Amino acid sequence: MLDDEALLAGLEADPLPEDFPPRLRAMVTYALKLTREPSSMERSDVQALEDAGFDHGAVLAIAEVTAYYAYVNRIADGLGVELEPDPAD
Predict the structure, then answer these.
(1) Farthest-apart Cα atoms in the chain, separation
(2) Are 40 and 33 in contact, with CB atoms under 8 Å apart?
(3) Contact 57, 89 (CB under 8 A)
(4) pTM score above 0.90
(5) 31 vs 11, 26, 89, CA distance in Å?
(6) Cβ(62)–Cβ(27) under 8 Å?
(7) Rounded Cα distance, 48 and 53, in Å
């Protein structure tokens, strides 16, 4: 398993690194497609998650979290909400 730094670096890479864990790769690939191209989702996208070992409940949770994140961000964008500055900066 990757440590937090390696996981973050992998998530920031495009495409995902070759050594990225297959189960996480399936989840991230699904979430990116649902975010970027929601109208192109097909049963095969769900099947890829199932093939990676996710059960129906986990697939639902992945779809819900991805969709909710997109929803909240669009509401914030639509209302002109500005991010608070990062105190670490």
Answers:
(1) 43
(2) yes
(3) no
(4) no
(5) 12, 9, 29
(6) yes
(7) 9
Helical packing angle, 56-78 and 22-36, nearest 10°: 40
In three-state secondary structure terms, 80 is coil
Count of Cβ atoms closer than 10 Å to residue 25 Cβ: 18
Position 59 scores a pLDDT of 98
Q: Are 45 and 30 in contact (CB under 8 A)?
A: yes
Q: What is the pLDDT of residue 1?
A: 52
Q: Is residue 62 within a helix (H) or strand (E), and if so which, with residue range? A: helix 56-78
Two tokens, residue 16: 């995902």
Residue carrying structure tokens 């890829």: 48
The 10 Å Cβ neighbour count of residue 14 is 6
User: What distance in Å separates the CA atoms of residue 38 and residue 35, rounded to the nearest whole number?
Assistant: 6
Q: How far apart are the two ends of the chain, measured CA to CA in Å?
A: 30
Report which residue type is found at 44.
S
Cβ 42 vs Cβ 74: under 8 Å:
no
